[in-house]
Amino acid sequence: xxxxxxxxxxxxxxxxxxxxxxxxxxxxxxxxxxxxxxxxxxxxxxxxxxxxxxxxxxxxxxxxxxxxxxxxxxxxxxxxxxxxxxxxxxxxxxxxxxxxxxxxxxxxxxxxxxxxxxxxxxxxxxxxxxxxxxxxxxxxxxxxxxxxxxxxxxxxxxxxxxxxxxxxxxxxxxxxxxxxxxxxxxxxxxxxxxxxxxxxxxxxxxxxxxxxxxxxxxxxxxxxxxxxxxxxxxxxxxxxxxxxxxxxxxxxxxxxxxxxxxxxxxxxxxxxxxxxxxxxxxxxxxxxxxxxxxxxxxxxxxxxxxxxxxxxxxxxxxxxxxxxxxxxxxxxxxxxxxxxxxxxxxxxxxxxxxxxxxxxxxxxxxxxxxxxxxxxxxxxxxxxxxxxxxxxxxxxxx
Length: 398
Description:
Layout lengths: L2 E6 L9 H15 L2 E6 L15 E3 L15 H4 L1 H5 L5 H20 L7 E5 L4 H13 L2 E6 L2 H4 L4 H10 L3 E3 L2 H10 L7 E3 L20 E7 L8 H14 L4 E7 L5 H10 L5 E7 L3 H10 L4 E4 L8 H8 L4 E4 L13 E4 L5 H13 L1 H18 L2 H13 L4
Parallel strand pairs: 1-2, 1-4, 2-3, 4-5, 5-6, 6-7, 8-9, 8-11, 9-10, 11-12, 12-13
Helix pairs in contact: 1-15, 4-5, 5-7, 9-13, 12-14, 13-14
């Protein structure tokens, strides 16, 4: 019985953002493998079992490991890990705890190297746990890398070993491949790109009526420093100032430590032609429902760095052009045919200047909507990409 062992950060044990990345992977694996064992590292809520295919098992051994609640004892519980790589003790101890829990899962479900292959969905300490299991049990594995796990400099030697022993590390953009290949030059031959893809069989969203003099801009992001939601607000304010006869609406879906400060900034807004709607966090399914049911003219994401910016592609599938900063893998989906690509550190003037031609020409804007949908259908179709990934993983079985 061919089995895939998938290690996630928290899904399906809660978490609002990971579902968009992981659930399509689980469904694709369920179509290709006889059995899929999903092992989340962290518990953030109850299991979303109703979304799982029938042949998927949720193993909570890592998330519910007593080691997680006895952090001060970890050096005693895993003395070898504590002594090895002293500069990366925390990372190594987490990998040791994960390895112990994964071996428990393997015993319970009779998983062996002859019938099971593994995937670390994020390039973090679980990939090191798999590297150690590979050397001990012969289990083969692949690693994905998305965003923070591309840019982090955490535990470089342990991460290098994880790449070396894997059957491949796959970043979700060419930019991610370049960054990782530069960091881990001696194992660069094992670093590749594989897009995640998004659902393409979705309806086009509504946009403002021609001649309405309204602009609806949506941002879906965690309210944290690197997402720069405050800069999105500045851009909306600049557009309202530049077009006093128009009404601008900026909506933010997301939560995070900077949300209170952002609310305070919103209270300072005195422009009658600017509406700001801070909706807070929504589950991924509700975000997709929002895109399908509401008027959205643009999806804006002004991150300092991104692995790919999956939400941009999701919006583009609905025919919503993107406004994004040229960082990481953003430029692989956003260009002159799909949206407005700004400098990495844009000024409001650049944003307003770039947007004006589309406000003044409905034909140009409609061409952008069509280009956004076409780009996703041609390059980022999740049905094809996820199936391709699942089959590649299965090909590792003897």
